[in-house]
Specification:
Structural class: mainly alpha
Radius of gyration: 24 Å
Distance between the termini: 71 Å
Number of helices: 5
Number of domains: 2
Strand content: under 5%
Number of strands: 0
Largest sheet: none
Helix content: over 70%
Shape: rod-shaped
Order of helices and strands: HHHHH
């Protein structure tokens, strides 16, 4: 085999590997983007404040947290928490989550 053909084969293999790697990155980014997991510290803080020593509320609080996490980005959640702290009233999204979980 000539050196020229061998170089072309090596280049084709490298290009193929690059395309495989790029496809992997695209898939991983898509999966990452679909994941809406909040940091563990946010979950722990929410659950602590929601349950507040009343263990019978754990399932309800967990449902509420999961609803918010599945429907709102962490940035949106932070803005809602800020609104709650300023106005001392639950934002509409919190009320929506509360209503959803109360039906269960």
């Amino acid at each position: 085999m000539s050196k020229n053909i061998l170089n072309k084969i090596i280049i084709a293999i490298i290009i193929g590997l690059i395309f495989i790697f790029l496809e992997y990155l695209i898939v991983e980014k898509r999966i990452f983007r679909q994941s809406n997991s909040y940091p563990v510290s946010v979950r722990n803080n929410f659950m602590e404040n929601c349950v507040a020593g009343r263990s019978n509320l754990y399932i309800y609080c967990n449902c509420t947290f999961n609803y918010l996490q599945n429907n709102y980005s962490i940035k949106e959640f932070a803005l809602m928490e800020r609104e709650l702290a300023i106005t001392n009233q639950y934002p509409d999204a919190f009320l929506e989550a509360i209503d959803y979980c109360a039906k269960d």
